[in-house]
Amino acid sequence: MSLETPISPSEGDAVVRVDQLILLTERLTELIALEAQAFEQRRPQDAARHLDETSRLANLYRHESARVRADPSLVGAAPREKRLKLIRATEAFDAVLARQGRALEAAKTVTEGLVRAIAEEVATQRNEASGYGPGATNRTADARAITLNKSA
After folding, report:
1. Does residue 3 lie in a domain region?
2. Which terminus in the chain has less CB density within 10 A, N or C?
3. From CA 89, how far away is CA 29, in angstroms rounded?
4. Per the domain annotation, does 94 fall within a domain?
5. CB of 122 within 8 A of CB of 146?
6. C-alpha span between 38 and 40 (Å, rounded)
7. Which domain holds residue 73?
8. Torsions phi, psi of 135, nearest 5?
9. How many domains does the chain divide into?
10. Does any domain span residue 127?
11. Half-sphere exposure in the Cβ direction for 44 (13 Å, CA)
């Protein structure tokens, strides 16, 4: 679009909206990619650095994408190349979300394995022989029932 081409008010609004959506989507993609990388590197504490911004932008993205789904004319008047750029940004966002999902699932599996190993070690130590005389044992309740919570 050149400067000499007149822009209708609806086209101007659509261009502004598409540009804002592209910026929002790209920033959210960047933040989610950083989180995924942190989980892949087994550094979940690094993922928390941008949590507030990620949450705020994710809510804004959800709200704006719902508005556009409900009324496609909000972006429909924008030039085709702008809309294609938004589509590519959205596809990149979807790919990063899938990557983050895999990283979170891996982190969850590792964490559950650690919790299970710790619970088994605690149960083993509690069930070791104690007391007086040969073969005396102290049979305590199984700690795994308390420690393991499959919904964690």
Report:
1. no
2. C
3. 8
4. yes
5. no
6. 5
7. 10-147
8. 75, 5
9. 1
10. yes
11. 8
5 inside domain: no
Calpha distance 96→104 (Å, rounded): 12
CB atoms within 10 A of CB 89: 19
Task: Return the residue matching tokens 């590197």.
Answer: 41
Q: Are 26 and 95 in contact (CB under 8 A)?
A: no
DSSP state of 142: P
Tens of each residue's pLDDT in the chain, 152 residues: 443 444 445 778 999 999 999 999 999 999 999 999 998 888 888 888 899 999 999 999 999 999 999 999 899 999 999 999 999 999 999 999 999 998 888 878 878 888 888 888 887 877 765 555 565 555 555 545 555 555 55
Distance from CA of residue 109 to its chain's centroid? 16
> Could you tell me if 148 and 140 are in contact, meaning their C-beta atoms sit under 8 angstroms apart?
no
pTM of the model: 0.68
Letter string b/e over residues 10-43, b meaning 16 or more CB atoms within 10 A of that residue's CB: ebebbbebbeebbebbbebbbbbbbbbebbeeee
